[in-house]
Write a structure and sequence with these properties.
heterodimer; A: 232 residues; alpha/beta; six-stranded mixed β-sheet; B: 457 residues; alpha+beta; twelve-stranded mixed β-sheet; two-stranded antiparallel sheet; 15 helices
Chain lengths: 232, 457
Amino acid sequence: MHLIELQDIFKTYHLGEVDVPVLKGITLNVDQGELVALMGASGSGKSTLMNILGCLDHPSSGKYWLDGEEVSGLSTDGRALIRNRKIGFVFQGFNLLPRTSALENVVMPLNYSSENLTERAGRQRATELLERVGLGDRMHHEPSQLSGGQQQRVAIARALVNRPRLLFADEPTGNLDSKTSKEILLMFQRLNQEEGLTVILVTHDGSIAQYARRTVRISDGLIVADAAGDAS
Amino acid sequence: MSKLYRTFRMALHALRRNVMRAILTTLGIIIGIAAVIAMMEIGSGSSSAIQGTIASMGANNLLIMPGTAASGGISMGAGSTMTLSPQDCEAVLRECSAVRAAAPIVRARTQVVYGNRNWVPMYIYGTTPDLLAVREWTELAAGEVFSDRDVRNGSKVCLLGQTVARNLFADESPLGKELRIKNVAFTVIGVLSSKGANMMGMDQDDIVLAPWTTIKYRVSGSSATTANQSAASAGAAQVNSLNQLYPSSATSLYPVPSSTQAADTPLPVRFTNVDQIYAAAQTSAEIPVAIAQITALLHERHHLREGEPDDFSIRDMTEMTKAVTSIADLMTKLLLVVALISLVVGGVGIMNIMLVSVTERTHEIGLRMAVGARGRDILRQFLFEAVILCLAGGVFGILFGRLCSFLVTKFLHWPTLTSVTAIIAAVVVSASVGIIFGFYPAWKASRLDPIEALRYE
């Protein structure tokens, strides 16, 4: 069984009276433990595909099984639940809560989780994750006191706090210099290798795709290439 | 439970992230609630002061009159029978809880003489010191009130109203002077403060007050309603053997009985009647209660059977009571309107800030949704924030309002009255304002699309 199974996904936006087809029949499988780069130029539909894969949006037609569950027909609340339980997000702009300590930022998703962790257990888990991303000494710093790379690492810890099956990284290095970018990408690789976490990197940058073991290229709403890359 | 607690903590945390804004927002509610509290306290203070003033005009007073006598189909009018006794008055005071004070009254209308001046006061009242409490007239211009002992002894002392004092004594001080009422010498022991005319235009200062025993037994002798001045002065010397004008002429016709003889042959108790009883209800609201209590009591005391007509009548100052109630009503409504307006202003302030806050935190809302917050989680969080702001505003508003009313009392000497109702209402209202005015922004936040919210700059 695949972790992700997309079958003939279409997505059409209605802008006024004009229908804009963005995804024109995507069929894709991703297995547990893969590190996939989703590549495409801007306007190719890769963000839309990521939104659908990340259960932020629903397809206009087609089927999507995530972890064996049909999610394309779920309600808004149902998708929120899936996002909370199975998916972690890392964004280009970090999206940390301002004036909130790193620890609080990591704990935040637990507030919406259905598993009833005690506050102490939640903090314990967040502390461990921050230590794992190498920020054990910066737990009580606010985002404004952290560098870009550190902020992105806090964001990764936050994405992992609900123990998701799947991690989405949307241009995770877009706001970072090349050295920090490398650190972050290596961290994704490590998470993928050590924990068997399925990671999907969404990017337009070919050099980032290098870190993935499989690259899926999208152009004009269709998958044009799906090849195993060299995971260096 | 823990979910609520978490939401509460999150809301608190979100507010702490922008303390200045939270304080400014709360300021609106603080001022609103403080205005409500201060207005309520100052208002209810003024209201009760106004009611007190009207009450001192006699709005709470009840007049108990004897019933009417009829002879051969000819009614003699109200007060023409002799059914009320001083004991009735004491019983009313003792047993009717809604009655604050009561005093019997024996009326006389005759000439008062001092030196070469004379005057016929509008009212010569024989009463007890309680009358002044009934009429809320306890302030004296000079001297002091006669005591209960004076009443028991039938002391020949009196209090003068301003008009009487002016006409008899002009510039002299009347204190300690002796004047004569129907040839009985009274010592003036006090002068009442000026009360002016009553609602009917009758000069209330044209009055002489004396112990009712003195007036009853030494001056009047009979119900004064029918006695006019000329008849009284004509009959005085012959009828009233207690007249002490010429002490030497008081010859004893019979041997004085020894104390043993007196004990063996008790004198039949003479029924003493009074002309009316003046009573005051505790508050204007209790007037109907007081009337019912007095009626029941007098029925029992006068041994009236079921269905037998009352031998007394009770009158209240309906006109004035109506004025009091309508003023109290008006004040309450006025205060309510002021309170509502200030709360709406505060509430709109909260809504404004919360709407700004939702726009400003669109990104954050998108993120929270991306990590799994449902619309209702967002709704709840923003509602909590609004309610916390409003409740905090409520608490500080109460303190601030109390401070304001305290300062007003302290420096402006306006009467204020602590209103627990207002405080409770303020807390309830501030929470409701939070929910009502916080709902729209919270609802707006909960309807955001996570993708667009995340992309929003």
